[in-house]
Structure formats: C-alpha cells, structure tokens
Design goal:
By secondary structure, this protein is α+β, with helices and mostly antiparallel strands. Among the domains are: 7-101, Helix Hairpins (Orthogonal Bundle), CATH 1.10.287.110; 266-369, Urease metallochaperone UreE, N-terminal domain (HSP40/DNAj peptide-binding domain), CATH 2.60.260.20. The chain has eight helices and 18 strands. Strand 11 (266-268) and strand 12 (271-278) form a beta hairpin.
C-alpha cells in the first residue's frame, strides 16, 4: 500500500477539513475528472477521488484512516474488498457527467432542463457583403438573398398531422429512469424520446418538412448600409434570422462588410487621402490646383517651393461617419512627377536650372557634412 496516494492529498484538502469542505472538493473534482468529460476526463483520477471521498466522508472510516493510514483497509478492512481492485465497483460507466451535480445525500436525482415544447430562439446567420468605396462612404440600400429556416406552412410548424397524446410519457413530455450507484439510487428525468418532450405525437409525419416543422426558403432582405462603413465592420439585423422553434423569437443576421479599394482615394477611418501630382515647375513656382474630394472638386493654392510628399489638410472633406456623427478630413500628399522624356529645348532649360546653387539649403548643408 506504500504507493497509494494520501486521501487528503487526492481531494486537495487539509487533514482538518470539515465534512462540507470534503464534499465540496469532491464535487468539483468529480465533475472535472469524470470519464464523460471530453476535455479533462481521467478514469484513474476519477476512481482515486471516489475512493478518497468514500473514506473521508464516513466518520468511522476517516478515524481509522487518520490512525492507521491505508493499512486500516487492507484485506477488506473498511469494506473496499481489498483496496483499489475492489473499488472497480464504483460504476463510473453507469454515471454520466450531469449526474455529478446532485449526487450527494441519501437519494439522488437529476432533471434535464431541455423541453421539446419550449420556445427556442432561432439560429443566427452570418454572411459577408462586399460593397464599393462610394457605397461605403455615402451609404446605400442593398437587397440580400439569404437562405432561412421558416415554419412549415403545411403542418403549421408541428412536424406532423393527427395530433394525439404521447403513449410513452402520457403527455408529460418527460420520462423517469433509475440506476444504482455506490452512493445510492440515482433518478434521472429527461425529455421523452418518442415525442421529444412535446407530450404529443402525430398519426402521420408531414411530407413537406419530414417532421422537422421547418423548411428552408430563400428570402430577399433589404439592407440599409449606413454612411462610413469600413472593412471589418459588422451590422446586426435583429430578428431577421432563422425562425425559432415552438413560436420562439427569430434569430439575428450579422453582416460582415468588405469595402473595395478606390482608384485614387484611400481611407483611414474617417479621413481620406489622395495624391496631388505636380510638375517640377508647379512645385517650384507654385500654382492653383484642382483637388478631387469625396464631396466634390475644390481649388487650393500650392505655394512656391512645395516639396515632394508635403501634406495638405482639407478640413471637413473626409467621411461623414454615421456611427459616430463626426466628419473626417481629407489629406493631399504632393507627388512631384519627374519627366522621363524631354525635348532638346527642355533639356537646355533644365541645364540652366541646374546652375542654381542650393548649397545654402538646410538639406544640402546636412548632406555635405557627411561627404567631406
């Protein structure tokens, strides 16, 4: 018996633990290690904590264990039938995970909460919608086609015709079964398997829905896309999803948006960015330039000596975000275009321009400091 684990250690309690503390520890561990628990089930551990609880929950056996340890139960001393080998009668194969919630006291019972005639909300639906840049910015209406569960019109959602009281459960919708465990008799009440908890059966199964009570239909739903939608945004259409069972509420539809890219505009939240192409002379001498925005064309003054990648802000020319009620800005980024083809006359003009000294500019001074 030297290799047996201490019973107090098995349950994770101290030797001074009260009966209530021992019972609470066992309940938690039994739920965790029951073989039917797919995530943490452990048959060996389940037997170990069951054996420990059987001893420590009994006042007389606990006193014997505290005085003599595992030796007190050798040769069947405490009714284990020879220790762990005799403990195989624990009967974990006959107990499912739900039984462990109420398996304390003189008699045990469990009642499933599922009822076949209870109102159940319909399943939610998730779908993806791709829209244009303009539709996302200005908002729009779109018609979506979605496949939905609808109550069968042939049987009014019941699944059959010729309703009668279920002979198995007598109309209760519930059936009771009993099983014996090492802790006593365990009583389980579950939904009737013949009427699925409804309390009624039918003389004939509905041929339209094949007894399901629902049929699949393709429906058109008008979707209003709010202004300012972005890629990754989700819109919820409450009560537009699948029909619920037994008159339950409809589910919801969740719309995931993806916005197509624009030819010249780029978005960053409520703000919009656009490139402003300038010729060398426009950048050097300055000019007035027409700037496209999502609200129409504006004219802005480009000052002389404007540099490449310089940024201009056009306040209030961004996205009118319906979600936040705020208006973004537009930013124009200068892109000086270098010509790749020049006439002879143009080349002469550029050569003359190259004679212009820039040695006193900050950029050139910094650069030359590292070239000497």
């Amino acid at each position: 018996m030297a290799d047996k684990k201490d019973y107090y250690e098995s349950l994770g309690v101290s030797k001074t633990a009260t009966d209530a503390e021992i019972k609470s520890a066992f309940r938690k561990l039994a739920k965790k290690y029951h073989p039917d628990n797919k995530e943490t089930g452990d048959e060996a551990k389940f037997k170990e904590i069951g054996e420990a609880y059987s001893v420590l929950s009994d006042k007389e056996k606990r006193q014997q264990y505290d005085q003599f340890g595992h030796a007190a139960f050798q040769n069947g001393g405490a009714g284990f039938g020879g220790g762990a080998s005799g403990f195989s009668g624990f009967g974990f194969d006959d107990i499912d995970l739900s039984d462990l919630f109420n398996m304390f006291g003189g008699g045990f019972s469990s009642r499933s909460s599922s009822r076949g005639n209870a109102k159940t909300k319909g399943r939610d639906i998730e779908t993806n919608v791709e829209i244009s840049f303009d539709d996302a910015v200005y908002g729009c209406e779109k018609v979506l086609k979605v496949s939905l569960d609808e109550p069968c019109s042939e049987c009014s959602g019941k699944g059959g015709k010729g309703e009668k009281t279920c002979p198995t459960c007598g109309g209760r919708g519930r059936v009771v079964s009993q099983q014996r465990t090492m802790f006593g008799v365990f009583q389980t009440e579950t939904a009737c398997p013949d009427c699925r908890g409804r309390g009624v059966t039918y003389e004939s199964t509905c041929s339209a829905c094949h007894g399901k009570g629902i049929i699949e239909k393709v429906k058109e739903i008008t979707l209003r896309v709010p202004r300012g939608v972005e890629t990754g945004d989700t819109l919820r259409l409450s009560g537009k999803g699948n029909a619920g069972a037994n008159g339950g509420a409809r589910g919801d539809i969740y719309i995931n948006f993806k916005v197509k890219e624009h030819e010249i505009f780029k978005r960053d939240g409520r703000d919009v960015y656009v490139d402003i192409p300038l010729t060398l002379t426009e950048a050097i001498l300055g000019c007035e330039k027409e700037i496209p925005t999502i609200h129409g064309t504006i004219v802005t003054k480009i000052p002389a000596g404007t540099q490449n990648l310089e940024k201009f802000r056009f306040k209030g020319k961004g996205v009118d975000d319906e979600k936040s009620g705020r208006l973004g800005d537009e930013y124009g980024i200068v892109k000086v275009i270098i010509p790749d083809k020049l006439t002879k006359e143009q080349k002469e003009l550029i050569k003359k321009l190259s004679e212009t000294t820039l040695d006193n500019s900050k950029e050139f001074k910094t650069y030359y400091k590292y070239t000497k």
